[in-house]
Amino acid sequence: MSRHSEPRRHPPFATRRYSILVYSGGRGTEVDYFQALKAWLEAAGRLSVSVDVRHKGVAPDQVVQAAIDRRERKPGAYDEVWCVVDVDSFQREGRRIDKAVALAKREDGNLAVSHPCFELWLLLRHADCRSYCADYDDTVGRLRRHVPAYDKADLRFTDFADGVAVAVKRARDLDPSGVDHAQNPSTGVWRLVSTMTEAR
Questions:
Q1: pLDDT (0 to 100) of residue 151
Q2: Structural domains in the chain, sorted by start
Q3: Distance between CA atoms of residues 189 and 115, nearest Å
């Protein structure tokens, strides 16, 4: 058979990696954490999905809407949409968490709600926390007992990297469903982290 009549060999089709979009209501801490977690998991060969991390510094329901809008602008790009939001004062101010939950449910999105705030997730890396956390200041005060230099504007991921599995277990123990945002303390971040590390 001549060289010109040999069948042409095509490279195997590339399989698109399972992709998740993560939108955060915080401009600093959450985005910095998930970007660093993504890089850390990737370096360890433990990141099972493609992760696009973005932020929208608005109320929780608006975060969900921003994430849904991006998914609609990029059809087929994302297999899952996750929004990371805090209860903080948003529930008192117009029941914004309830609105976010309803919108996420209607639009097939996922919420990782922390009550009262994302710093609870960081605290669980260092200690079990089962008692009521009054607010952000209370939670950060507890966190600083373990990480005295904690600064939400300058997150050092090395303070939290090694305890990811421990934090997942502690958060799951607080709320096995991962969606009971009325419970204080609780955080559904463990569900998102598990999604990032489970093989797809």
A1: 95
A2: 17-197 (3.40.50)
A3: 11
Supply φ then ψ for residue 87, to 5 degrees. Answer: -70, -55
Neighbours of 176 (CB within 10 A): 10
Q: What is the pTM of this model?
A: 0.90
**For the residues of the chain, what is the DSSP string, one character each?**
--GGGSPPPPPPPPPPPPEEEEEES-SSHHHHHHHHHHHHHHHTT---SEEEEEE--S-HHHHHHHHHHHHHHSTTS-SEEEEEEE-TTTTTTT-HHHHHHHHHHHTT-EEEEEES-THHHHHHHHS---S---SHHHHHHHHHTT-TT--TTS--GGGTGGGHHHHHHHHHHH-TTS--TTSSSEETHHHHHHHHHS--
The neighbour count for residue 85, using CB atoms within 10 Å, is 31
Token pair 């903080």 is at which residue?
Answer: 88
The CA angle 42-187-108, to the nearest 5 degrees, is 75
Tell me which residue has tokens 């010109």. 4
Structure-token match 């489970």, residue found: 198
What's the pLDDT tens digit per position in 110-119?
999 999 999 9
